[in-house]
Amino acid sequence: MAYLESDEYLQRKGIRSHIEHKNAELKNAHRMTRAKYRGQFGMRIQAFLTAFAVNIKRMVKLHKALSQ
Question: Which of the listed residues 19, 27, 34, 48 has the most CB atoms within 10 Å of its CB?
Answer without folding.
Answer: 27
